[in-house]
Structure to design on (611 residues):
């Protein structure tokens, strides 16, 4: 797979996550003629219209028929194309689950799925158009890598690397009105390697997607209360950065996970699996949807309701700091 | 079109050999989807022994025609053909169904040479075939994509999503064949979930739809060549077949969708085929 793909964004402050995705995809398409974009009557909503305009031959609209889209992506990959499939997360991951599993992952086809409107980001559309189960489902498919970029710049960097590496990738982004986390494009991004957004020694918040910004806000609130909060941007949910999680366990022993997703099967579960296997004692609180379906509402209200905005995570930090964990004689740490 | 007598005889003889292989593997492996493997055999033989371009020494040859067995449970029949045309040794099929074997009921493209897509879950083949055919056209390639569907499989929505797309995109380099044996697991396709009028359904989705006798090589070859010459739309060949074809006690029996054979039954089945 060709490395060295490049792109530039001049006006990121005035562009949404999906607009930057569409712009970067178009620039990558100019450099790699095997990139082919597929969508299911959502070219406008997923912002890949620019790609369609520049490369009409390499743009395929399948209509409202997502299962066939995943099958076609598998077939196109088999003859050397790099299909980039865009639709809403709920359709990509749940309606198409078996097609993604059997046609793409089982056959190890080089397909990139860009799932927009993930979590509760499509607020007023309600549960049918929310998707709070995709990380759980996609994470369970062998061969699949699962990424939840925190903002537009991460989306662009993740997309570039996704195209440069061989194999199936599921990337969930929001509806695209999310505020930026990074102030510039000048940061390192590597699939499978967490980014420490904020240094801290009392407690660690591990987040992905939109909630990384919430976690950073919570860290600032907690700082006023005298707490030192580490924030890890765990943009790659699979393969998860085991070292970063274990380091947090060893150095802070209190961990909160925050995701716009069910607490069953997603980031929180992935972190819990690492902790449990380590044999180390630790307090873990998983924030997200607590085994419930989401309600209708403005996206920012929904983040608040499910405790994954800055205030909600700050409150959880206070709770967890009051929770004791059993002392372990063999445990050598600085807590 | 009528085949030359010796060519017809060659294909018929090969089909009989493949059916005997299917019976033998079914005996050694403990059980297989034998009924549908026997019904699809003439279609498979016409493709693999007359039309498909492939190179057993170079299974990934880019210019090969693609073949997908969307009715993946016919894998025992597909495996028998792939061994016979030289993708691997016949002896490898002795391990069919054994733990750790590359060969199970549904063939895995990453483990079995000559398999273009891992199928088994019904309703997946036509969508993948669409991608191959669409990709070939985009790349300016002349190779063709063939996909063999079961008729019970046509109950499901995904195949019709794919059929609609192939018609919309006018994928003339794509040919679907339906092994129309009129039986699914629980009985007659028309009793369980009726498919008729089937030709009209495909035509309404933008396909050139041909109905033939799926055990008559003249008709099979004529239809495949008509599909190759079609330029404006994909072609579906609805081939009327007999489930269990060639084995007298299996023919038209839904219960032989899947089954095993003891030594006496194997001998009885082979004798029935030897009389063909």
């Amino acid at each position: 797979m060709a490395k060295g793909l490049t792109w530039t964004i001049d006006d990121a402050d005035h562009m949404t996550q999906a607009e930057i995705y569409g712009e970067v995809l178009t620039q990558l398409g100019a450099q790699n003629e095997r990139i082919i974009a597929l969508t299911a009557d959502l070219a406008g909503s997923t912002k890949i219209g620019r790609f369609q305009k520049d490369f009409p031959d390499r743009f395929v609209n399948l209509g409202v028929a997502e299962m066939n889209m995943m099958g076609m992506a598998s077939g196109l990959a088999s003859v050397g194309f790099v299909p980039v499939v865009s639709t809403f997360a709920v359709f990509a991951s749940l309606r198409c689950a078996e097609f993604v599993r059997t046609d793409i992952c089982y056959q190890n086809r080089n397909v990139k799925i860009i799932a927009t409107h993930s979590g509760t980001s499509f607020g007023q559309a309600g549960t049918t158009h929310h998707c709070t189960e995709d990380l759980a489902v996609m994470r369970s498919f062998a061969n699949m890598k699962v990424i939840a970029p925190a903002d537009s710049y991460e989306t662009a960097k993740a997309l570039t690397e996704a195209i440069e590496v061989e194999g199936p990738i599921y990337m969930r982004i929001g509806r695209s009105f999310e505020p930026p986390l990074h102030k510039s494009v000048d940061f390192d991004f590597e699939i499978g390697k967490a980014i420490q957004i904020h240094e801290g020694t009392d407690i660690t918040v591990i987040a992905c997607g939109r909630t990384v910004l919430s976690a950073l806000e919570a860290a600032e609130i907690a700082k006023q209360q005298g707490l030192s909060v580490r924030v890890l941007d765990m943009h790659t949910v699979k393969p998860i950065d085991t070292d970063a999680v274990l380091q947090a366990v060893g150095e802070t022993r209190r961990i909160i996970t925050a995701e716009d997703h069910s607490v069953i099967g997603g980031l929180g579960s992935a972190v819990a699996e690492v902790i449990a296997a380590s044999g180390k004692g630790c307090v873990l609180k998983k924030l997200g949807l607590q085994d419930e379906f989401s309600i209708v509402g403005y996206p920012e209200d929904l983040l608040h309701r499910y405790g994954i905005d800055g205030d909600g995570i700050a409150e959880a930090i206070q709770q967890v700091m009051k929770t004791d964990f059993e002392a372990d004689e063999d445990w050598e740490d600085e807590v | 079109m009528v085949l030359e007598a010796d060519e017809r005889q060659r294909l018929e003889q090969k089909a009989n050999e493949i059916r005997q292989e299917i019976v033998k593997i079914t005996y050694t492996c403990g059980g297989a989807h034998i009924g549908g493997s026997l019904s699809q055999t003439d279609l498979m033989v016409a493709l693999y022994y007359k039309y498909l371009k492939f190179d057993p020494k170079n299974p990934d040859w880019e210019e090969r025609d693609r073949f997908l067995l969307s009715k993946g449970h016919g894998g025992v029949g597909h495996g028998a053909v792939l061994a016979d045309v030289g993708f691997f040794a016949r002896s490898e099929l002795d391990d069919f169904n054994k733990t750790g074997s590359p060969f199970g009921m549904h063939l895995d493209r990453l483990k079995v040479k000559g398999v273009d897509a891992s199928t088994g879950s019904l309703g997946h083949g036509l969508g993948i075939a669409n991608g191959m055919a669409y990709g070939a056209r985009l790349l300016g390639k002349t190779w063709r994509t063939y996909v063999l569907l079961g008729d019970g499989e046509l109950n499901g929505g995904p195949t019709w999503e794919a059929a609609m797309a192939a018609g919309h995109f006018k994928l003339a380099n794509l040919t679907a064949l339906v092994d129309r044996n009129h039986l699914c697991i629980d009985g007659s396709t028309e009793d369980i979930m009726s498919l008729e009028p089937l030709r009209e359904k495909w035509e309404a989705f933008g396909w050139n739809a041909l109905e033939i006798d799926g055990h008559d090589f003249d008709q099979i070859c004529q239809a495949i060549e008509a599909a190759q010459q079609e330029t404006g739309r994909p072609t579906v060949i609805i081939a009327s077949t007999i489930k269990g074809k060639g084995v007298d006690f299996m023919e038209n029996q839904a219960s032989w969708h899947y089954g095993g054979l003891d030594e006496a039954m194997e001998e009885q089945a082979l004798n029935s085929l030897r009389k063909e």
